[in-house]
């Protein structure tokens, strides 16, 4: 079976673009709206060329009015369209947070089940391009806190390519986080859309000694760390959470039942983040499986500073992961 | 107007605009050398606005600006070396290196930054003006922003609040016709921005932002009105950015011919021509200014180069006091 699946190597940017193009070709109710998605070609060139292909009715440039156009996305979704709303950078999403929380996530419940909001919001985020304290954050946990939303994190090329369609198929609002530092990086994607299940976490690397549980910007770093550790005789498993709400407990628990150790890694600020929740669930459910205390590596609690050396120090790096794992492995 | 211009003042205006221009050309160069990183938004073409408005502000007045704020900072008299050091990320920078190009702050100069959330500073400007009024200080809060920002809810909320509370804010809208790649006709249903002031009961004027003398005169009237009445004022300056939005912009959204057309209205050549034409200054004077500015910019670069990196142990500084 595996031999039939074709893989291609593309950039993360191209993976997102292909996903959007395919969704738009399949369903004429799908349209993209966001700041500078059309004439500018997308702030990060993700949607470059799509305006020419689909025209301004389906690739809609919007004014700087985040609350307004996210609200409009909700309204269009209520009335039968399938909007993909792009938030240029996670920080600007805060201007629309009211619409996301008080409307998109809430209408189904508040209306006693009468209203669905099949809206997809794509948010680019992350640290690593020296964009300082108003342009570089990982705020997945803010959204993961909200019942009514599905929150996805595209930490790999595969997910960047194939998460969008299942998200559009969802009757409920879905937030997809994309990572700007990955845009130019090449990676493998399969041509089979069935490869991505947006209800499940994904084991990216099998291992038996310790589970590195991460998502988003942490995935490739964890895989690199695992490669280094393998050379030193430590066999790490890498679990990409990828669905941050609702969390998939079973994939995490299965991994920890196998390895008996866990390191949780993410770039979001350390306190009250996704790792906090995963850690608590491990304690509540499979505490006696553990051979060592669970450890967390999160972002330093500081608005992101501009200089490279301070920016790097603000989030866990590959070396930090390696060091933390060596420490955990000292426990018997 | 131009007849009342003396050599001292004319030269001063010219010098300030030329300094911004040269400083930013140098910054672009340093960006390609990767000395400056992150986002870099140049003000080239729009110098007349910052310089003209700043002429009418006093030391006790306060300024808020956007991520495109090198010009405002320089025109306000923030030290060029400390700005360049900030763009390098060195701790000698005006924001201790923490902010970079988009976040220049200098409280000694009452320069309240560099805000990179579009529209994010307008409410604060109203609050600062409210504080001034409550404490019976006769200072003005001057807030610069682009026409793109005028589509944000913040703009409309801030305009209403400023008028409702009768507080001394000078709202300066720098209409350079584009918000990134979105032309004003795609972001505003009503593109004559000056029509938006009266709806909030705010005194409004529109001016050619490529003419520093006109900007200065309009800002003079505006600030006199604010000082006399304590009420807000909305000043629309029509201008144009000659360069890309930032260093990441391929400029797919506008024709080179349009840019060239606007370059004919370059505010610096315009002032140079009229000053020379009126025999107020000579071409030699301009050359002399060029030389002086070259040295000043080079000194700023040297200062930044000689600056130091903040130790990584201090990462968590400036989160709480
Ligand atoms: C709230 C918010 N949304 C989007 C952006 C991204 N962005 C930065 S500048 C800009 C255009 C702003 O245009 P304008 O206000 O006209 O100012 P200009 O850049 O032309 O000086 C955009 C969309 C942002 N920084 N903040």
UniProtKB/TrEMBL annotation, chain A:
Sorted alphabetically, which Gene3D superfamilies does this protein's record hold?
A: 3.40.50.920, 3.40.50.970
Q: Which cofactor does it need?
A: thiamine diphosphate
Q: Which residue range or ranges hold the Transketolase-like pyrimidine-binding domain?
A: 10-185
Q: Does the keyword Oxidoreductase apply?
A: yes
Q: Which UniProt keywords apply?
A: Oxidoreductase, Thiamine pyrophosphate
Transmembrane residue ranges: none
The cross-references to Pfam families, in alphabetical order and at most eight, read: Transket_pyr (PF02779), Transketolase_C (PF02780)
Query: Known CDD domains for this protein?
Result: TPP_PYR_E1-PDHc-beta_like
Concerning InterPro entries, the annotation shows: THDP-binding, Transketo_C/PFOR_II, Transketolase-like_Pyr-bd, Transketolase_C
Q: Does the keyword Hydrolase apply?
A: no
Q: For this protein, what is any one GO molecular function term?
A: oxidoreductase activity
Protein name per Swiss-Prot or TrEMBL: Alpha-ketoacid dehydrogenase subunit beta
TrEMBL record, chain B:
The record's Gene Ontology biological-process terms are: pyruvate decarboxylation to acetyl-CoA
What SUPFAM superfamilies does its record include? Thiamin diphosphate-binding fold (THDP-binding)
Question: CDD domains, alphabetically?
Answer: TPP_E1_PDC_ADC_BCADC
Known Pfam families for this protein? E1_dh (PF00676)
Q: Can you provide one Gene Ontology molecular function annotated for this UniProt record? A: pyruvate dehydrogenase (acetyl-transferring) activity
Keyword terms of this UniProt record: Oxidoreductase, Pyruvate, Thiamine pyrophosphate
Under which main EC class is this enzyme filed?
oxidoreductase
Q: Which Gene3D superfamilies match?
A: 3.40.50.970
Q: Which cofactor does it need?
A: thiamine diphosphate
Q: Which residues form the Dehydrogenase E1 component domain?
A: 15-306
**Do you know which InterPro entries this protein is assigned to?**
DH_E1, PDH_E1_Alpha_Subunit, Pyrv_DH_E1_asu_subgrp-y, THDP-binding
Reaction(s) catalyzed by this protein? N(6)-[(R)-lipoyl]-L-lysyl-[protein] + pyruvate + H(+) = N(6)-[(R)-S(8)-acetyldihydrolipoyl]-L-lysyl-[protein] + CO2
Q: What is its EC number?
A: 1.2.4.1
User: What is known about its subunit structure?
Assistant: Heterodimer of an alpha and a beta chain.
Q: Tell me, what does this protein do in biology?
A: The pyruvate dehydrogenase complex catalyzes the overall conversion of pyruvate to acetyl-CoA and CO(2).
Supply the name of the protein.
Pyruvate dehydrogenase E1 component subunit alpha
Provenance organism: Chitinophaga oryziterrae
| Gene this chain is encoded by | pdhA
